[in-house]
Write a structure and sequence with these properties.
The chain is mostly beta strands and 78 residues long. The chain has one domain. It has strands spanning 14-20, 27-42, 49-57, 62-67, 71-75. It has a five-stranded antiparallel beta sheet, with no helix packed on it. Strand 1 and strand 2 form a beta hairpin. It is globular. The relative contact order is 0.35.
Amino acid sequence: MVTEYENKYKIGDLVKWYEYYADGDIVKDAGRGLVVQILNRSSEPWEGERVLYLVYRNRKGTQEYYTGRDLELIAAAG
């Protein structure tokens, strides 16, 4: 399982993204997209860095940030 603190994806990877309802257990929406940017954000010093992925969502034609746990690799970039 990918955590939000690991950098498991690369720019250009084809991924499946998931959006959840507020409780975090039930999937609200899902689709395919491409990782277009990787952002390392420091939150609290004791938590380490949090990795966020900006994903271009093909079906919606929009971009959204996701953590690693909200993504699943479909195909790695060449």
